[in-house]
Amino acid sequence: MLVEHEGVKLLTDPGSFTEGKTDEVCGVHAVLITHEHQDHFHLPSLAILLRNNPSTEIVCNSSMQKLLQAEDIPCTVVGDGQSADVRGIKVEGLGREHAEIYGTMGLVENTGYFIADRFYFPGDAFFNPGKKVDVLALPTWGPWMKMKEAIDFAKEIKARTAFGVHDGMLVPEFRGFIHQALKTLVPGTEFVELKDGEMRKF
Asked: How do strand 89-94 and strand 83-86 relate by DSSP bridges?
C-alpha cells in the first residue's frame, strides 16, 4: 500500500504477495513495516525497492530491527507509543502483538502506524489507537481474524472513511460481499472498495 501525504510517499509492508512489483515503485521516501511475517516483509522485494530508492528510510519495530541489522539494513525504530518525523510527516507506532492465529503460532511483535494524525494502518491486529481516525486501512480477511471482528473494529473506530486491506487471498467476488456487509452494518463510515493497483484521494 502506497500512501502519499503532502508529497511524501510512504510504502507499507512490501511482502511476498507483492513480489515482482516493487521494481516498478520509485520515489518512495519511507517504508513502514508492521511485522516480520512473509506477506508483510519479503527481503528480496525490499532489496529491489531499496536499490531503486536508495534514500528510502525504513521504519519498523524492535523485532524487525534485529532482522534488518542481520542484513546490514539501517532503520528507524518506532514501536508502540513511539513516534518519528519522516520527511515532515508524523508517524506514530501503536500496538505490540499480532492477533492470535492459534496459540503461539505466528505470534510476533506487530506495530500499527498512525500517519499525520489522520490515517491508521493497524497491520495484523485490531488495536484501538484511542484517538480519532479519519481514514482507516481495515483488515478484512486473514487466518487470524473473522469478518465479525473487522465489522466490530470498524464500529469501534468510527472513521470517516475506510477501505479494505489484507484481502489478497480472496477472490474479487468475495471481497465485494465483505464490503457490502461493512457498508450495511457500519453506516457511519464511508467504505471505499479499491481494486488492486487503484489510487484514490481521501
From this structure: antiparallel
Per-residue pLDDT of the chain (202 residues; tens, 9 = 90+): 999 999 999 999 999 887 667 777 889 999 999 999 999 999 999 999 999 999 999 999 999 999 999 999 999 999 999 999 999 999 999 999 999 999 999 999 999 999 999 999 999 999 999 999 999 999 999 999 999 999 999 999 999 999 999 988 888 778 889 989 999 999 999 999 988 889 999 9
- Rounded Cα–Cα distance for residues 91 and 114 (Å): 6
The answer to whether the pTM exceeds 0.70 is: yes
Q: Backbone phi, then psi, for 157, in 5-degree steps?
A: -75, -35
The sheet that has 83-86: what strands, in order across it?
A: 83-86, 89-94, 112-115, 119-121, 135-139, 161-165, 190-192
What the block records as the C-alpha cell of 177 is: 460481499
Q: Which amino acid is at 128?
A: N
